[in-house]
Amino acid sequence: MVLAGTLISNTGATTLSGDVGLSPGAAAAITGFGTVTQPTGTVHAADAVALGAQADLTVAYLNAAGQSPATALPTELGGSTLLPGVYSSGTFGITNTLTLDAQGDPSAVFVFTAASTLITASDSNVALINGAQACNVFWQVASSATLGSGSHFLGTILSLTSITLNTGATVEGRVLARNGAVTLDANTITRPTCAAAPAPTSTPTTTPTPAPTPTPTRQVAAVPAGAVSTGDGSTAAGTSTAPSAAIGALAIATIAGATVVVVRRRRLDS
């Protein structure tokens, strides 16, 4: 899915899965679509649907920008394997392959916030392992994003200004620009779909049969003299749940960002 503020231009044979929206730019600012194949979805040019999508994008952008706590990373992400969480940098770049590892959790969310740009090298790649899904990967970019020729990118780009896909770049995700243009050149953009997380398997439980109440018997031994020794009733020290609570709060916060994008997607995608 593609959304832009001022212009959507295309060169060459591009395939787009899902809706295309432009707002507040005029319909005439969508160019080069004679060579675009759109298997699903509709083009919304400066209409109420595109306007609503831009409003939802603004909410999603601000939500992603406000995610915390964030782990600061260097610019270069290529060669790294990252676990679910929120990551920040002044600018992000990808050379070679960035791997995102969900550790077996298909609902795991990855949020990347760039104070400036996102730039990927030619033929670079984002790979998902252990259940990670492109629909749960978000890139908030405070300036513009550029994807290199022949690169393969995963996730939703939420850009303040513009997004440029160079020749042959492919995206499994969404390309969403708030104020600027989206420039396409023989690209393929596939709308991501999230596989549902498997339902937890419940373990059958059985109710134990109560032990029979013993019949009191006469005490025949002599009652011993002296004090009776008893335990102090204390239990072993418990472990703090604070780390788990913090992780849970982070998960809820990042899922909230995903939820906002889902709301926008329902409005704009077919």
What does this structure look like?
The protein is α/β, with parallel strands linked by helices and 270 residues long. Helix content is 17%, strand content 33%. The chain contains two helices and 22 strands. The protein has helices at residues 48-65, 242-268, and strands at residues 2-4, 7-11, 14-17, 20-22, 30-31, 36-40, 43-45, 71-72, 81-82, 85-89, 92-94, 97-101, 110-114, 118-120, 125-129, 137-141, 145-147, 152-159, 163-165, 170-177, 181-185, 188-190. The strands form three sheets. Strands 1, 3, 4, 6, 7, 8, 10, 13, 16, 18, 20 and 22 form a twelve-stranded parallel β-sheet that branches. The chain is globular, with a radius of gyration of 27 Å. 37% of the residues are buried. The model is unreliable at 215-270 (pLDDT under 50).
Calculate Rg over CA atoms: 27 Å
Name the poorly predicted regions. Answer: 215-270
Euclidean distance between termini CA atoms: 10 Å
Strands, total number: 22
Helical fraction equals 10-25%
What's the tally of helices? 2
Molecular shape: globular
Class from helix and strand fractions: alpha/beta
Percent strand equals: 25-35%
Succession of helices and strands: EEEEEEEHEEEEEEEEEEEEEEEH
> Average pLDDT across residues?
81
**Major beta sheet summary:** 12 strands, parallel
